Amino acid sequence: MEWTLRFFACLANIFLVILKPYFWIRDCKRPPKLPPANNDLLNISAVKLAKKIRHGEVSSEQVIKTYIERIKKVNPLLNSVVENRFEAALIDARQCDKMLALHEVTIQQLEEQMPFFGVPFTVKESCGLKGLSYTGCTTVREGIKANEDSLIVQSMKAAGAIPLCVTNTPELCSGFETANLLYGVTCNPYDGRHSAGGSSDLSGSIRIPALFNGIFGHKPTPVLGPMARYAEDLHAAVKVMSSGCKVNLRLDEPVNLAKLKVFYLENVEKNCGVKSVDGEIRNAIRRAVTHFEKLGAKVDKAIIPELLESSEIGILKLLTIPDVPNILIHPKDPKQMLGDDSVFIYPTFPTPAPRFGQIVLQTAAGMYSLLCNILGLPATEVPMGLNHQGLPIGFQVIILLFPKIITSIYKYLLLIRLSLHQIMTDFVWLWRWN
């Protein structure tokens, strides 16, 4: 089975090389770039926007209008929004402003109970937003609307957030790219010729689309998770989404950085079916590791030969074959890294976003993120700016904690600057579910 899978992976790589002229001819003309986001409200985190609204520095209606206008400008180029509720969102925003004007709630109450008061958010089409498309992006369910809000949407609404729209996904949330016969193809915002990834692609859930689009994404244990442009929004969103959890997740517990163990791996060598990790992604990992080392963390390069079998383990697991290799029972490598203060920095995907259609022939590259899904480990995608082609790069931070799965948070400031683009990363939250 192992060699069969690797044979087909190698065969796919050969086809990719053969088809390169086709992709070059197809994509020789670059599509129009997105218009710049000149409004300052578009370049502020949701947490900061909510604070401005609470203190009367800006109205919720003004924020919602700004985001609606932005969506109307960029969606014709991206094809990301499936269906919107813009008018209803404006009504919700006016209601928020009215509550503030009439002093129905205090600033402190809003800060503690409604951290996203008056700010917009979008919902994945398959999650369920009442009255809007709920088809799974398949023609079999065309025309079906959600009868109610999903629990996660209810939680966000209870926190004061205002839903604007539902967004496109792969058909039945089971593809590596956001494309389907019902709503079409969603393009990458940095270059429309490239893939935007797929948010529930069985292998890189949340993390691969976050990598391809240059944002933060947190995949908890096998449940829904948030994606955001700013790391601090991940923290607030996870607190809201887990508000009904009966277990104390210790989301604000401080962590002693001197006790932190940072394991890292830049590349998985000697796998004939997978491309070597892009040099700029490897450099990003090195910069992050060096920075943590300067902050006092213990840094060590991981040696896990079993990661070569990630693709095989994942596929066998998906096929429900019981006799699956388990790296957790290996007597040496992984267990040496386990502990309450260990994290693992590892590539999410070997390259930045490939051209649309190419990722189908790079399925084996999902080995970098697939094992996390199979083992139910939480992981956070951390953007590290753009490469020389202007495409996002980054890596995932995996939490190696067994056997318990309870959340707490590492929050650190990575002052890492890309020499070519001089792009400073935002606060990087390293999530710990132990």
TrEMBL record:
The segment(s) forming the Amidase domain are: 63-311
Q: Answer whether the UniProt record assigns the keyword Transmembrane helix to this protein.
A: yes
Q: Looking at the Swiss-Prot or TrEMBL record, what is one Pfam family this protein matches?
A: Amidase
Question: Does Lipid metabolism appear among the keywords?
Answer: no
SUPFAM superfamilies in the cross-refs: Amidase signature (AS) enzymes
* TM region positions: 6-25, 391-414
Instruction: Read off the InterPro entries from this record.
Output: Amidase_dom (IPR023631), AS_sf (IPR036928), FAAH2 (IPR052739)
> What UniProt keywords apply to this chain's record, in alphabetical order?
Membrane, Transmembrane, Transmembrane helix
GO CC terms of this entry: endomembrane system
Protein name per the record: Amidase domain-containing protein
Naturally occurring in which organism (per UniProt): Microctonus hyperodae
